[in-house]
Amino acid sequence: MLKERPFPFPTDKSIRVIIDTDCYNECDDQFCVTHALMTPKFDIKGIIAAQFGTVHRRSGTEQESYDEIANLVHLMGLDGTVDILHGLDSALTGRDDPAFCKGSQRIIDEAMSDDPRPLFVATLGAVTNVAAALLKAPEIKDRMTVISILGAPYPAGGFEFNLMNDPVAADILMTSGVKLWQVPSSVYATMKVSYYEMLNKVYPYGEIGKYLVTYAVEFAGKMQKMIAELKDLLPAPPDMSEVTIGGELWSLGDSPTVGIMMNPTVGRFHDEKAPSRVLPDGRYEFDGTETGTIRVYDDIDNRFIVTDMFEKLKYNFGE
Predict the structure, then answer these.
(1) pTM score of the predicted model
(2) CATH 3.90.245.10 fits 14-191+252-317, yes or no
(3) CB 176 within 8 A of CB 200
(4) Do 184 and 148 touch, CB atoms closer than 8 A?
(5) Distance between CA atoms of residues 268 and 240, nearest Å
(6) 3-state SS, residue 298
(7) For the chain, which ranges sit under pLDDT 70?
(8) How far is CA 176 from CA 147, 172, 224, 274, in A?
(9) Helix, coil or strand: residue 307
(10) If you compute the radius of gyration of the chain from its CA atoms, what whole number of angstroms results?
(11) pLDDT given at position 13
């Protein structure tokens, strides 16, 4: 269990948070979810499992995400304290897709509640479940902020893993007019952490710390095979020529969401005109149609976010 703090933080600063995560797709989600669960400012209203099977062309990925969320909660000693909800098990087929799930319903319920505290929905993977909620209840767009690890840089866009796992959902989200704060691939890729930092500042702290590091190292060993599979599966695979496997570092690409929810100024940002449409290959199309604006992050304070995670692990799981 998490330790009690020696003093309370101001309750009027707390926010409601829903996390939507493809938790077993890679190894950065695990760090992000763990960090969020240790952050007192967040009143976690649910963690939703997201699918990641479109790019890999396989089924069952939503259940894998669900099971991994449950695993993290258990390793942190938080069984029974966190609502874990199922998401959709495949990508949306179009704007008239009737697919719906418990996770999407939780987003709607929280958005429409009378709780005056801000609601943030943090998406760490495909935005399938958020898009399904917006399709069923478009009125929620004015009652929440969505922070998404999503998309390639503007103005062109292009291949990005989370977007490509459900381009229809990305199109729905990015043209919906919802208050959207987007962290594109050029920014989230800078969330670097070294394996030596992990060994010294994560591994010693509880079963959760040991698991996070062990799994990250094991996953890095599988990455070369995954890249080869992508080249075989995708008609136009991304350029992986500068991707190195192994080495001494990893990118915790989902963790900017935690820092941004703690304080939006942990990175610099600008307002970008929202695309008129997101194309199936991830490119952004602008045809003059007004679909609002998106806050796009230009950089992120990696060191603040990573150090905050280290200190919370030490405080909660140290001797």
Answers:
(1) 0.93
(2) yes
(3) no
(4) no
(5) 27
(6) coil
(7) 10-12, 223-247
(8) 14, 6, 37, 9
(9) helix
(10) 18
(11) 80
